[in-house]
Amino acid sequence: MIEARDLTKQFVRSLKKGKKEEFFAVDHVSFQAVQGEILGILGPNGAGKTTLLRMLGSLMEPTEGQVVIRNREEEPVTSKPELKKHIGYLSENTKLYGRFTVRELLSLFGELYGFTKEEMQEQVEKTNALLHMEEFIDNRIEKLSTGQKQRTSIARCLIHNPDIYIFDEPTLGLDIISSKAIIDFMKQEKTQGKTVLYSTHYMEEAEFLCDRILMIDKGKVIASGTPSELKAATGTGNLRDTFFAYMEGGAEDEL
């Protein structure tokens, strides 16, 4: 469904005395995420996770490499409008229109995707049920709690029923009930054959939810595999310890 081929992003940063330095935020990363899979992307702050996700979501052009997205018929998707239909992207910086109600916001995005009034109403109700937003769907967004706003952001991403979700820290700072609603949503979408790319700092969440894990540091992939494979390679009992083992170079094998 989505593949990174030697994906690279290079930036220039300013140093002291007017000097500049080139560096790789993402350094020749390759992987594939398939239909019906949740792929976790883990790494410390500054590892390049957000830059990688932005390139995968067609929000940033790579310096080198290529992102390949295929539809369910295994045909490549190349045009920008078609790519937008296939991807639902959630950033930690996603902005919402505070004076809209949740229903009004979702209806607006439904119109932008070309839905008829009947299609839009049907999709809004499906989204409402899927994310359990009954209590606040007709409330203004500026009055919502943090968890309710995050569910609204995810609802905006799925209103057009994309095949690929790219989520950057979707449960960051949320209470346990809001987090559960989002995790349950991702599990449900997996059963519908959707592909989920999921960046998080919560190791226990990733271990429970993800089919495979991609660990990156300083823009490079340092490990990839199922949670069980990664734990076995490091001789650790949980993904948190596995993460630290790879960060310290303590893995027995490179997967």
- The whole-angstrom Rg is 19 Å
Stretches where pLDDT is under 50 for at least 5 consecutive residues are: none
Please report the distance between the alpha carbons of the first and last residues. 22 Å
What class, by secondary structure content? alpha/beta
What's the total helix number?
9
CATH-defined superfamily of the domain at 2-93 and 165-247: P-loop containing nucleotide triphosphate hydrolases
Into which percent range does the helicity of residues fall?
25-40%
CATH architecture of the domain at 2-93 and 165-247: 3-Layer(aba) Sandwich
How many extended strands?
Answer: 9
Estimated share of beta-strand residues: 25-35%
Following the backbone from N to C, one meets helices and strands in this order, namely EEEHEHEHHHEHEHEEHH
CATH class of the domain at 2-93 and 165-247: Alpha Beta
Major sheet characteristics = 6 strands, mixed
Q: Tell me the CATH topology of the domain at 2-93 and 165-247.
A: Rossmann fold
Shape: globular
Strand order of the largest sheet: 5-6-7-3-8-9
- The mean pLDDT is 89
Describe the protein:
This protein is of the alpha/beta class. The protein has helices at residues 49-56, 80-86, 102-112, 117-131, 146-158, 176-191, 203-209, 227-234, 239-247, and strands at residues 2-14, 20-33, 38-42, 64-69, 87-90, 164-168, 195-199, 212-217, 220-225. The chain has a domain at 2-93 and 165-247: 3-Layer(aba) Sandwich (Rossmann fold), CATH 3.40.50. The radius of gyration is 19 Å and the shape is globular. A six-stranded mixed beta sheet has the order 5-6-7-3-8-9, sandwiched between helices. Strands 2-1-4 form a three-stranded antiparallel beta sheet. The protein contains nine helices and nine strands. The model has no long low-confidence stretch (mean pLDDT 89). Helix content is 37%, strand content 25%.
